Structures are given as structure tokens and as C-alpha cells.
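Entry 14. Structure prediction run on the chain below.
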Amino acid sequence: MLLGKKVEAAREARGLTQGELITLSQISRSNIQNILYARFYAGGEPSPSYPKLDTIFKLALALRVEMSYLTDWKHPVEPVPPPTPPEGEPPAPS
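Output returned:
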């Protein structure tokens, strides 16, 4: 699924290992792997383990991307947008 490809692309663009992503996002290894490998689909239909909005929010924070990058199917996987400022920091001047 597109979500898994975007998570993987952003993870690599930020130079994070899967372990670091797990630590930063506080999402379980199995849940991260389910997202990366689209294991939440059974016969084309979402299974009960389809990622919840709060899971996607945690990923966006950990990867420092806007949620729209992860959720908008029209947004391409590449290029990964520049990092958003860490939570609590003002945006960089343009």
C-alpha cells in the first residue's frame, strides 16, 4: 500500500533505522511492519488491524512530515517533503 511506501521513503530520507522509528513513534515493531508491508489488507478489504489515525499521527511526528503526505493518495511517494520542525519549535524562516 502507498502508506507503507511513504513511511519507508520518509524513514530512509530522515536516516532512521526501523528501530529508531519504533522508538520515536512508540509504535510496536509488529504494527510498523504491518504498515510497511501492507499486512492490514485481507482480500482487498481492510482488516481490524488497519492503522488508526492516531498511529498515522505518531508516524508523521516521528518522521517529521505532514499527515497529508502520509494520507493523501494523490501525493507522490517521492520526493519526501523537507522535515517539519520538531514539536514545540517554531518553523524555520523561509
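The chain has one domain: 2-71.
Filed with the rest of this week's runs.
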